[in-house]
Amino acid sequence: MEIKVNDNNIRLDKYLSNNTDYSRNLIQNMLADGYVTVNNNPAKASYKVKENDIINIKEGYLKETDIKPADIPIDIVYEDNDIMVINKPSGLIVHPGNGNTNNTLANGLMYYTKELSNLNGEERPGIVHRIDKDTSGLLLVAKNNKTHEILGDYFQNKKVKREYIALLCGEFPHDSATIDAPIGRSTKDRKKMAVTDKNSKNAITHMKVLKRYKKYTLVSCILETGRTHQIRVHMEYIGFPIYNDPVYNTKAATSFGQFLHSAKMTFKHPITGKEMNFECPLPAEFEDFISKLEEK
Fold first, then answer.
1. What is the pLDDT of residues 180-191, one digit of tens each?
2. Is the residue at 45 inside a domain?
3. CA distances (Å), origin 107, targets 8, 162, 175, 178, 235
4. Global pTM value
5. Which domain CATH number covers 150?
6. Which domain holds residue 31?
7. What pLDDT does residue 98 have?
8. pLDDT tens digit string along 156-181?
């Protein structure tokens, strides 16, 4: 790619960020690795461009993904030039891993569009964050690297508000609770996470009771942090595991998996700054089970 500069006294990394589809972070990496020259000379990110400078960006820095597109149905709640909001069904893995390379949301996204970010690597096109395989609901996707970089900052600085709906086993006695308990890899089972003081990170979940049933409690959970399996681990820790959870509940589970649904998401649009609010209803299996509890 060749660019003729039409401005003066702007940092090279900022100028390229403003005049290409690359994020500033990616541009700085490309500069550091020698993929960018100015007037055929190596250049630093801090170089101040001059009018009529010729910038060249070598090809090959970003590799094409090896993920094979697959015709997997995607429930798109919202889409524009920069983001997609997906309603992920229970049972669908977000990105390839652990031997599953063909039946993931990432494969479906590749089939649907080629306009996806790649800041999280070739195996995670568009994927800014994830939810567990058997957790359903809202998931945010970036369609370009600039958007991805901003959204990544949002998640890191808690600028994305997410609310989950969960059905717990047992009748929780309080109307609300905050679980502040660190989470790390379980020392008893390396496939599980657990509340532990060893190699853990702080984890905070705010919980509110929506309705109590005989032997069950419907709650909303808002994440203050985003640790792996956070809600599932915290609910098991307080003695009210999520219904049908195949990992953190001792009772037998069906193939549907845990009754945990990402129901609401609020954030500012990474490009326009507009306040974005999304909600999606419970999946049919979850809703039907609640209806049966209501009948009882």
1. 999 998 988 878
2. yes
3. 43, 25, 41, 37, 32
4. 0.78
5. 3.30.2350.10
6. 2-57
7. 61
8. 888 999 999 999 999 999 999 999 99
Q: For residues 287 and 259, what is the distance between their CA atoms, to the nearest angstrom?
A: 10
Residues 148 and 166 in one domain: no
> 244: alpha, beta or left, given left = phi > 0 and alpha = psi -120 to 50?
left
Question: How many residues can be counted in the chain?
Answer: 296
Dihedral angle computed from the Cα positions of residues 107, 111, 114 and 119, in that order, rounded to the nearest 10 degrees: -10
Structural domain total, the chain: 3
Structure tokens at 230: 């956070």
Q: Output 246-254 pairs: Cβ under 8 A, ≥24 positions apart.
A: 246/134, 247/191, 247/192, 248/192, 249/169, 251/169
**Residue 132 is among the residues annotated as catalytic for this protein:** yes
Does residue 121 share a domain with residue 139?
yes
Look up residue 105 and give its two tokens: 């949301």
Contact criterion met (CB below 8 Å) for 190 and 293: no
Annotated catalytic residue, options 13, 53, 132, 245: 132
pLDDT grade, residue 22 (50/70/90)?
Answer: confident
Q: For residue 239, give the nearest of 181, 162, 164, 163 by alpha carbon.
A: 181
Q: Which of 226, 234, 279, 225 is CA-nearest to residue 258?
A: 234
